[in-house]
Write a structure and sequence with these properties.
560 residues; alpha/beta; six-stranded antiparallel β-sheet; 15 strands; elongated
Length: 560
């Protein structure tokens, strides 16, 4: 709900701050006092197109601030998308400069104007001749019918359609992807087979490049390797004296006296360790000496190494990456080999899912058509009470069974049709009804229990145009009943409507320093009686007595 509204330098409003409350609040005042400015200010802070007319003459800018309080996951999602913390309270602000440019803020953080508009779409519904009215939207008209369907015994019909649609759409996507793969990958498959055969011939394993490079280096320097191995072997084990023989002599010279000095014992033990290591080196050197040189094998190894490097360069990865690519290609080729079987299975699954969707959509469509007749019948007494006796209303439910019209909410086009007078053609609601008529139609739907999921805040302007007497009482009672479920702000000139409100704010204008200024003043008890008496035609004893009776009746509004 709206907790407060602050308006500065907006049209004729110099500075107004209002604390707002739950329930129904009515705004009353003399004709021309500026009641429409309130609608304009609310429209501004919820993203309406800016106008230089908003800025009070002589001021640099107009400023409108509202504090809004509610727990709504849709608003929380919008705030998350714009990196704004959600602590349950929002401060929305719109600043419009005298050149027509505007800025928008949420909790002091600059945001795009569309964010305010998106919040307004969720939490605010205007009902007035020049304002956006949600009931005009086909999606909301469908929502009216679906709310009734889902409140019936078959509450799972819409859910079943949504589930059937999701299954059918997912299978269709899989089949489409399969066809795309088959159409696009035949040439790719040939390339994959050739590349896979080439890489398999390299017998790739992690570290292969380093191993092949070592083999190539050894082959290219075979003579130097043999010479170095022979010379090392001679020095270590074959010359007179060789290194190992010299180590043995050193060991023997230390052995008799090692007990006399720890350093001698440690040195002899190290000599033995060195000799043991050299003993392992000798067979390694003999093995190198025994290796033969094969020029053909060297050339093959060089070619394999070059092919490996070229493959790694072409695919931008190392041996491990090539192995991963090979695995992917093998899987894709295997999938292509079984694609014909997969296609047949998918096609059968798609057909079954489509059949299930048709069945569920038909069930939902039947329920919608049944409820559409019920709600049209239930509306009749409310329309009569609201001075809309000549208006006929119906909900058209047209099934569009072509697959291109399928959706998670079924295949129906749902729209409100209105016959404004007997003998006239049926037309779309938006093309026929005036702002006041649509506002009263909303109240009639509310009376039928059909608007349980509407925005948190409803603003009604011109709802009482062209009515009076008991019809006005009916309007006021329905507005008050709506106020028990959501916050309702009403601009009215009828005392019957005003008397049904929980709160009343009087709008008047006066002269200040040679300028006209509009003020908004909350009134209580005596103040309300006085204002109701003015609306009845005179603030005298009889008028006040009459006003008290109106308020007494208004305070006993029956539950909806």
């Amino acid at each position: 709900m709206l907790v407060s509204l602050t308006v500065k330098q907006f049209a004729l409003i110099e500075h107004v701050h209002l604390e707002l409350h739950a329930g129904m609040t009515v705004f009353t005042g003399e004709t021309g006092a500026g009641k429409s400015m309130l609608v304009g200010a609310l429209g501004a802070v919820f993203g309406a197109r800016s106008s230089v007319e908003w800025v009070r003459h002589g001021a640099d800018r107009a400023d409108v601030i509202v504090v809004w309080e509610a727990d709504d996951p849709r608003i929380s999602s919008l705030l998350d998308d714009n990196d704004i913390d959600d602590d349950g309270e929002l401060i929305l602000r719109r600043v419009v400069s005298k050149d027509g440019r505007s800025r928008a803020y949420i909790n002091g953080i600059p945001v795009a104007l569309k964010v305010l508009r998106q919040i307004g779409d969720v939490c605010l519904d205007f009902h007035g001749q020049h304002e956006h009215q949600s009931l005009m939207q086909p999606a909301v008209q469908q929502q009216v019918i679906d709310a009734g369907v889902c409140n019936s015994a078959s509450a799972n019909a819409l859910t079943a359609v949504g589930s059937a649609f999701d299954t059918w759409k997912e299978l269709k996507t899989q089949l489409k992807n399969l066809h795309a793969e088959r159409g696009d990958t035949e040439q790719q498959a040939n390339w994959m087979r050739e590349e896979l055969s080439r890489l398999e011939g390299l017998q790739i394993e992690p570290g292969l490049g380093d191993a092949l490079q070592t083999e190539v280096d050894a082959g290219r320097h075979h003579a130097q390797v043999q010479h170095a191995a022979a010379e090392s072997l001679m020095l270590l084990d074959e010359s007179e004296p060789c290194v190992r023989e010299l180590l043995a002599r050193a060991n023997q010279s230390l052995l008799p006296v090692e007990d006399y000095h720890q350093g001698l014992r440690s040195s002899r033990e190290l000599i033995e360790q060195v000799d043991a290591l050299l003993a392992e080196a000798v067979p390694e050197l003999r093995s190198v000496m025994d290796e033969s040189f094969d020029e053909l094998e060297l050339r093959q190894t060089e070619e394999r190494l070059m092919a490996l490097h070229e493959s790694m360069r072409r695919h931008g990865c190392d041996e491990t990456g090539l192995l991963s690519l090979m695995q992917q290609w093998q899987q894709r080729l295997a999938a292509l080999d079984t694609a014909s079987w997969d296609e047949a299975e998918l096609l059968e699954a798609v057909q079954k899912a489509a059949m299930n969707y048709r069945q569920q959509a038909e069930i939902l469509s039947t329920q919608r058509k049944t409820y559409a007749k019920e709600i049209a019948s239930q509306l009749r007494p409310f329309l009569d009470r609201l001075a809309l006796g000549g208006m006929q209303v119906r909900f058209d439910v047209q099934s569009q069974q072509d697959e291109g019209c399928w959706s998670a909410s079924g295949w129906d086009d749902i729209g409100m049709k209105v016959m404004s007078n007997p003998g006239e053609p049926w037309r779309d609601l938006a093309a026929v009804a005036s702002g006041g008529e649509v506002s009263r139609l909303v109240l009639a739907l509310k009376g039928c229990g059909a608007l349980d999921d509407m925005p948190h805040i409803a603003v009604f302007d011109e709802v009482d145009t062209g009515i009076g007497g008991e019809t006005a009482w009916c309007v006021g009672e329905l507005l008050a009943a709506m106020g028990r479920e959501r916050q309702v702000l009403v601009i009215s000139h009828l005392p019957q409507v005003a008397s049904c409100a929980d709160h009343q704010i009087v709008i008047n204008k006066h002269e200040k320093d040679g300028r006209t200024v509009t003020q908004l003043e909350p009134v209580q008890e005596a103040g309300r009686e006085k204002e109701i008496a003015r609306m009845l035609g005179g603030i005298d004893a009889n008028g006040l007595e009459h006003a008290a009776a109106f308020l007494q009746r208004g305070h006993t509004v029956p539950s909806s």
